[in-house]
Amino acid sequence: MYEVAFEDLLISRLGEPQFDTEQVLGRKVEGMLDNDRILFHRHLSDVSGYAQKQQKIPVVELAGPRSRLFFKPQDTRIGIVTCGGLCPGLNTIIRSIVYTADQYYGIKTVYGFRYGYSGLNPQVGQPPLPLDTNLVDNIHMQGGTILGSSRGPQDSAVMADYLASLGINILFVVGGDGTMRGAMELAKEMEKRRQPISIIGIPKTIDNDIAFIERTFGFETAVEEATRVIAAAHMEAKGAVNGIGLVKLMGRDSGFIAANATLASCIVNFCLIPEEPFHLEKFLADLERRIRRRQHAVVVVAEGAGQDLIPAGQEDFDKSGNKRLQDIGPFLKKEIIRHFTARQLEANVRYIDPSYTIRSVAPTGDDNVFCLMLGQGAVHAAMSGRTAMVIGYRNDHYIHLPMTLVTRFRKKVEIKGRTWKTVLDTTGQADYAA
Amino acid sequence: MYEVAFEDLLISRLGEPQFDTEQVLGRKVEGMLDNDRILFHRHLSDVSGYAQKQQKIPVVELAGPRSRLFFKPQDTRIGIVTCGGLCPGLNTIIRSIVYTADQYYGIKTVYGFRYGYSGLNPQVGQPPLPLDTNLVDNIHMQGGTILGSSRGPQDSAVMADYLASLGINILFVVGGDGTMRGAMELAKEMEKRRQPISIIGIPKTIDNDIAFIERTFGFETAVEEATRVIAAAHMEAKGAVNGIGLVKLMGRDSGFIAANATLASCIVNFCLIPEEPFHLEKFLADLERRIRRRQHAVVVVAEGAGQDLIPAGQEDFDKSGNKRLQDIGPFLKKEIIRHFTARQLEANVRYIDPSYTIRSVAPTGDDNVFCLMLGQGAVHAAMSGRTAMVIGYRNDHYIHLPMTLVTRFRKKVEIKGRTWKTVLDTTGQADYAA
Amino acid sequence: MYEVAFEDLLISRLGEPQFDTEQVLGRKVEGMLDNDRILFHRHLSDVSGYAQKQQKIPVVELAGPRSRLFFKPQDTRIGIVTCGGLCPGLNTIIRSIVYTADQYYGIKTVYGFRYGYSGLNPQVGQPPLPLDTNLVDNIHMQGGTILGSSRGPQDSAVMADYLASLGINILFVVGGDGTMRGAMELAKEMEKRRQPISIIGIPKTIDNDIAFIERTFGFETAVEEATRVIAAAHMEAKGAVNGIGLVKLMGRDSGFIAANATLASCIVNFCLIPEEPFHLEKFLADLERRIRRRQHAVVVVAEGAGQDLIPAGQEDFDKSGNKRLQDIGPFLKKEIIRHFTARQLEANVRYIDPSYTIRSVAPTGDDNVFCLMLGQGAVHAAMSGRTAMVIGYRNDHYIHLPMTLVTRFRKKVEIKGRTWKTVLDTTGQADYAA
Amino acid sequence: MYEVAFEDLLISRLGEPQFDTEQVLGRKVEGMLDNDRILFHRHLSDVSGYAQKQQKIPVVELAGPRSRLFFKPQDTRIGIVTCGGLCPGLNTIIRSIVYTADQYYGIKTVYGFRYGYSGLNPQVGQPPLPLDTNLVDNIHMQGGTILGSSRGPQDSAVMADYLASLGINILFVVGGDGTMRGAMELAKEMEKRRQPISIIGIPKTIDNDIAFIERTFGFETAVEEATRVIAAAHMEAKGAVNGIGLVKLMGRDSGFIAANATLASCIVNFCLIPEEPFHLEKFLADLERRIRRRQHAVVVVAEGAGQDLIPAGQEDFDKSGNKRLQDIGPFLKKEIIRHFTARQLEANVRYIDPSYTIRSVAPTGDDNVFCLMLGQGAVHAAMSGRTAMVIGYRNDHYIHLPMTLVTRFRKKVEIKGRTWKTVLDTTGQADYAA
Q1: For the CA atoms of chain A, what is the radius of gyration?
Q2: Which of A57, B345, C415, D410 has the fewest CB atoms below 10 angstroms from its CB?
């Protein structure tokens, strides 16, 4: 259990919301959620721990419309920016924000900043794209992002100036933890300037590893696509003498996609993830045993797995500041071939690196619903004057979480938890952590 | 909030589990969950309600392996039966049970009873199918159930005799609330006879309306398929002068599929569900307005919607005891045509009843993972001697729930809740409940 | 063999093409096809028959660009109209025409007439939609037609007047044989008026039954979709006691979709098509035998099959002049139930009428290529001054065929031919024609 | 046009077929094709060329059952072997052969040799797998080959001995031109030994480049899959500043997949194939222009393209004797980055090498029909005593072609032909051959 205090879950506000929602919108809008709260924790041991220590039990706000607004719709100008790598559902979120702004609040001015934060720096970026419901009507059916994306930060002051010059009151930022850190700096800059701009994040990580959030958009779709690739590897493995299908999947720091795709496909024999360092020689010996017994095998490896095994190259970082990983896929392929060659045992390794094909597809129906709800929640939160927060998902509810909380660390597959145990049981692979 | 007492969540047991799991299996099996509990409720108001009333706060057991076993694997004989209509994922559950029994516990005898409860009555049914890992290896990639299914109960005494004659210790029952009621009667019969057979349910309802359970298997897949059909209706609607795509979806008592498919596809203009009775003339007038303004419309109707509007035919029931519904689809088509004809306004209604095509497909990757976990949880629960319970899902965890609890009522779409409000916001349709 | 004379294949022209293509376009354009011809027949017996009778062997022109143009691009104004029921690929054809007109010839004026021929009658229809490459850029990825469609003719004189008033020189007509008859009348009207408008047809029939044409667009996609439905029926059949999956597929006059979907899925036990009348009682007896032996069966029936078996209702015609068929699906379901009930043999019939879901999907990649080529061929043919012809496909080539030829009759599944024999061999069903 | 002498189309026979088919099978089997022939050529110029030279016009036999059999079913033992790389449809062909042997001729003994020709050498290979209709019932729904495959030849004498020892009369060989050469040698060995074994080939090349054959199985499916990958590249390209999606597709010697996938997806800007050598600097300059104008681009490159541009590495050959190609994908990526870096122009290259994921999928419905017909034709041809031939497809018919003919050369995309011209028109790319 991660220590989270009651106070950690308090949401920042730009100020007191002064307008009555129903009066402003001229109609009854039900489902107000001003006072509803859900418990942040669900394990009895966690909850009772607070009670014993006589601490307040942490609770979170639910996403949704509020009875009072901070912004008047006719004075509201919205910006959206999508940052980092592609992830299924980006367009659905854009669409949901534009539609909610227009149809719920009557806000007509929504700018889509182009290519990540660079679009918020007029020196380097392209001018924003005015968005309306016509333009975004069908975009949820396609992958990618109509705004484009990019990695890396921009100067907060420059962005603040630019937003001010455009009269933006609300900025929606879709991106990973690096993006959220950029958003927090921007929020601080705003606060310093006493410029009341609401900054609401929608956490994006195809790897599903944002802290304290049960599920992030696009993850389910990615798992679905990954199972297609694993099925191909399986067919290749069975189609060759001692065939070994080797698939590299996304997962820099965490093995959620690898683990879930392994469970979803039921045909993986070895699943290697960053959370559980594996012994190369033990793995190769186990693989050999499997091949001798069954003549084919499927190996799934998360891109961040086994980094300690690869001789270090030059240290290198991408624009998001992520350390460039050594490429575990070709390394493993080479090692497998070396191992089998040394034993004069034929082995046909079919290596598949599906790379961009997984993250660029259109979302599944379920991810579409998820993105729709995230987008709506984001607009409602912003209109109420909340800021420096994200829309998250936990305990079957869409919730508000402070940006400071979700950037604390990256979530990991718990190697003592049910999911990973089930992976071990399903693959029959050795538990290197045991 | 539904009143659930702490005691409502206690799980029945056949007796004290006497065998040490690790000793019996001859290996360390981690992830034991003997004492872990999660809170049943998550709303602060719910939880604090119990505290104020000085009642125990309801908590639930987590699904997973236990440190002590009631059954000795070598003496254990397992039965599986699938009942009611098809639902994506049935085969994955069968596969998961067979694999967990074999690979985790070394249990080799698993019988698949054919065609629902009729397979438990040797007078009417067919002999059971012996299942092993070879037979079930690839079945998770296909829809349907390899065991077959049927509706309706059989006599508890007859089933108890038959199970006894086969030496079955554990029976897994996959089915809806009717099926679970049958299972409870069987469990009572067993208790009466002091025949220690564990009966574990895996709740099946493609409509996702089992009480107190957040998600049931196959639902996500059904929504995914339904969006395909809605896309077809949309194309048909746009392709004709004043085209109206009318789609009937599953949902006898609840509109979860209709509501979620509406959100997932983002192109529905009217979503009609049983929970919110609609005024026929108002709906027709709204539809007319939409057609005059936009020249096309998509209408999704759950099969249980609008039953009050249709002149009653003869009362009729299916073998599961479900009242046969009047067919809302053709009724609505006829009424729409009548309305537009009367106004001399051309309208081209394209009615689609996708019926069996939605429920018979193979599960999505995510549903596969879900079914895998349900199956594993079921075997672990049975081996520990638990009975008359189901494997459920709540608060992001797989849990144990008493059968008595989940058959209390059927879950409904809350028409004051976020999902339905979002449907209203997304479609722009009138809120008949307002 | 159908008698086709050399003269039957001559293509009408508006006049002598006077402009040199390369000179007009200002660049070299290779792949000119002025003199290339392919043989219409391929059976030795057919070809030698002409030789013996000392008749000219029929040959056809290939589709593609010509070295001389009849129309000057800068004076050319194009119209497109899509008629009849939806068919996968309509949008790809529209896109291909717009792109070829713009990028190959530099023609900027392309009107899309709305909702079939009604869009060519300003009294009843809606104004045309100006089309350009931006508008049509992504439409090939979606089903339906962005122009809309409708059934039924309009007065030739009215359409001719309207086309003249808009200055249209070229009209592309996408539709079935009824549509082509309308196009021929319009072409005659033009000739009478000495109004040089080229009218080029692109034959549309999801049933693949246009005379003398090997393949029509959308057919392959329809078969692909139909196999999905048959797979569902198969799962339903296997999932129930004596389950019978009954699927009605398109095919008013011909069973091409039913036959090909039967072959494509390999799991159909009975395939009923209009070309081979079946004996109801014999079919039911065979079905009973199959059920007794194997406990499940899949029956595919084309909508036009068995019309002679159904008690005639009132004669009725749709706007295209097609006689409304009796609904064979429910009739067959009722008869099957009657038969099994009389024998006190349980049977669970699952009837699926996928209706609009098959014809409204996006085309497969192969159908996309096909539509692209048809659209390009159509523009080239029109620019050379050809008229009253269609773009067809035969002997692996895209060709020109006179409209008079392709409307002579509707193609049928040859019940003595290889495809149908293979259906009989594959299903094992009786040959009612034997 | 390639000159084809009349003799080339004569099909070898093991001897006179002595048994009356209907008498042997005890039932009427219609659709006998003893005397039907179709013309090999279809271009008027080709056909008239023969006439002018007073040569006989080449004609081909149609695939299908014959009125007389060479083999008696009860004495017939069949072998099947699949060689070379995976290709969608292999299992459907296996299934079709087994079903036709069993259900049409009543032949129960069918051996599936494992892992290509190595399965025909008992010294190195694994024992054959006995096949029956139960075993192969559902295999057409999955990719790969249940027999496994491998590259490379085995000694003819060894294989002949082994076939003799097993009493095999008929061997079906599924593979590429190398495989067919092996089959011809085996046929010669058989002839030398006067061992009457029929050897029938089913040409496999996912690249669709078998000489004189219009279409090979799996090609359509591969194009379908390739369009999915291209769509991903498109999304990636549009999602990044100056994004360039670079996709490597199969096509060692020919660009059919690249060209058709380009047409099928309509979103490719540059398609590079082996048949049209491209100028690297010109390509880069054109790509730069495209990026400056439109900010994104999609490049498809066949694996055999641009080999002349890559500095030669060590010459290397795979077991099939194919020269290992230099890897054009990473080379092109590097060159693009070099080019843009030199111009200080940002460019984000997203390189996708889908590799095995394309060839290992299950076939489309249309490819399933195709494979079914090939398999049936092969069995009929063998039973009539034909040998050293393949089942091909041409002029819309399944035909018999001598193995000698189809191994003469590999088919190429005609760079003056309609398909390639259409690629140039569609992409707008330069014609390097001009």
Answers
A1: 24
A2: B345
Please state the separation of Cα D398 from the chain's center in Å.
15
Q: Which residues lie below 8 Å from residue C366, measured CB to CB, with a gap of 6+? A: C220, D220, D223, D224, D260, D264, D364, D366
CATH of D220-359+417-427, one of 3.30.465.10, 3.40.50.2000, 3.40.50.460, 3.10.20.90: 3.40.50.460
D310 contacts chain A (CB < 8 A): no
| Neighbouring residues of A28: CB distance < 8 A, sequence distance ≥ 6 | A22, B434
Could you tell me which of C279, C391, C389 has the C-alpha nearest to residue C335? Answer: C279
Question: Which residue in this structure is represented by tokens 């702490």?
Answer: B6
Contact B222, B367 (CB under 8 A): no
- Chains near D with 3+ CB pairs less than 8 A apart are A, C
pLDDT digits (tens, 9 = 90+) for B26-55: 988 877 899 999 999 999 999 989 989 999
C184-206: b (≥16 Cβ within 10 Å) or e? bbbbebbeeeeebbbbbbbbbbb
- For residue A176, give the nearest of A117, A120, A223 by alpha carbon: A117
Instruction: Provide the mean pLDDT of chain C.
Output: 94
3-state secondary structure D202-215: EECCCCCCECCCCC
pTM of the model: 0.96
| Reported ipTM | 0.95
A200 within 8 A of A382, measured Cβ to Cβ: yes
d(CA C11, CA C390) in angstroms, rounded, equals: 10
Choose the closest CB to C39 out of D31, D44, D428. D44
Helix ranges (H only) for A167-273 are 177-193, 219-239, 256-265
Report the sign of the C-alpha dihedral through residues C183, C186, C188, C193, in that order: negative
Most confident of A93-102, A316-325, B28-37: A93-102
* Percent helix, percent strand, percent coil in chain D, to nearest 5: 40, 20, 40
Q: Which residues contact B395 (CB under 8 A, 6 or more apart)?
A: A42, A395, A396, B38, B39, B42, B214
Q: What's the gap in Å between the CA of C332 and the closest CA on chain B?
A: 17
**Subunits that touch chain A (at least 3 Cβ pairs < 8 angstroms)?**
B, D
Residue B100 near chain A (CB below 8 Å): yes
Burial of C416 (0-12, 13-18, 19+ CB in 10 A): exposed
Q: How far is CA D390 from CA A169, C252, D17, D151, D170, in A?
A: 71, 37, 19, 19, 13
Q: Sign of torsion, CA A387 A390 A394 A397?
A: positive
> C249 has which bridge partners?
C302
Q: For residue A185, how many other CB atoms are within 10 A of its CB?
A: 16
Chain D hits for A150, CB-CB cut-off 8 Å, are 240-241
Sign of CA dihedral D250, D251, D255, D260: negative
pLDDT category of residue A434 using cuts at 50, 70 and 90: low
Chain D: give the shortest CA distance to residue A233, in Å: 7
pLDDT tens track for A217-241? 999 999 999 999 999 999 999 999 9
CB B381 within 8 A of CB B389: yes
Rounded CA separation D25/D73 (Å)? 9
Q: Where in chain D is the domain with CATH 3.40.50.460?
A: 220-359+417-427
- Chain C to chain D Cβ contacts (< 8 Å): 163
Element (H, E) at C350: strand C348-352
What are the start and end residues of each CATH 3.40.50.450 domain in chain A? Answer: 6-216+361-406
Q: Which residue of B has its CA nearest to C350?
A: B356
At D184-215, the pLDDT tens digits run 999 999 999 999 999 999 999 999 999 999 99
d(CA C188, CA B25): 88
Question: What is the CATH class of A6-216+361-406?
Answer: alpha beta
